[in-house]
Amino acid sequence: MSPLPDPAATPNFAVIVMGVSGCGKSTLGSLLGAALDAPFLEGDDFHAPEAVAKMRAGCPLSDEDRWPWLDRIGLAANAAVATHGRTVIACSALRAAYRARLHAAIATPVRFILLENSRERLLARLASRANHYMPTSLLDSQLATLERPGQDEDALILNTDADPAALRDAVLHWLR
Ligand SMILES: Nc1ncnc2c1ncn2[C@@H]1O[C@H](COP(=O)(O)OP(=O)(O)O)[C@@H](O)[C@H]1O
Ligand SMILES: O=C(O)[C@H](O)[C@@H](O)[C@H](O)[C@H](O)COP(=O)(O)O
């Protein structure tokens, strides 16, 4: 892998790793944050306690639950870009309207990466993940809500059968 561009000479940007629960957002996002020397923001940390309780109880979030959450992520992204010039965010961003909200909230170019896998593989990964509030029973509603980015959104789409380091390198290549 060739060296990254000089951060001082690189325009500001935000990278959002998106997709349904268990697709690998946090795993890839934290690797990308380290590789880009950028703060990594975990979208789960910005949910209201009531929203986490709702998901824990097996109830999908509504648009009304998600709008303020997306706006909080936007504010945190702007703060991270102000201090570091770039940030990497893990955020489900399942619908096109949520991605538009993030674009509107974040005052710098935003690049989306959709992570995908089969329902069976996602269920297995969710089941093997310890200490997480998200029940596997919500996967089907996540998959039903997901609107894959269209061509107009210029997103990178990756399957997470590949190992995380290979995915990280594919994203770094795409960003250049
Ligand atoms: N590329 C990958 N290959 C194998 N396992 C992965 C990969 N990405 C994530 N995982 C595993 O799948 C589970 C869900 O990943 P996670 O990053 O928490 O997903 P998300 O943040 O999208 O919910 C975790 O146990 C993680 O270790
Ligand atoms: O919009 C949503 O419904 C949530 O953001 C959801 O997509 C997210 O998946 C959960 O917060 C669980 O977190 P993980 O994605 O880390 O499983």
Automatic annotation (TrEMBL):
One GO biological process term: carbohydrate metabolic process
Superkingdom field: Bacteria
Any one Pfam family match given in the protein's UniProt record, by short name: AAA_33
CDD domains listed in its UniProt record: GntK
Enzyme Commission numbers on file: 2.7.1.12
Any one Gene Ontology cellular component term annotated for this protein: cytoplasm
Keyword tags: ATP-binding, Kinase, Nucleotide-binding, Transferase
SUPFAM superfamilies documented for this protein: P-loop containing nucleoside triphosphate hydrolases
Gene3D superfamilies, sorted: P-loop containing nucleotide triphosphate hydrolases
Pathway noted in the entry: Carbohydrate acid metabolism
GO molecular function list: ATP binding; gluconokinase activity
Catalysed reaction equations from the record: D-gluconate + ATP = 6-phospho-D-gluconate + ADP + H(+)
Keyword Endoplasmic reticulum among UniProt keywords: no
Database matches in InterPro entries: P-loop_NTPase, Therm_gnt_kin
Family from the record: Belongs to the gluconokinase GntK/GntV family.
Protein name: Gluconokinase
Protein source organism: Sphingobium lactosutens DS20
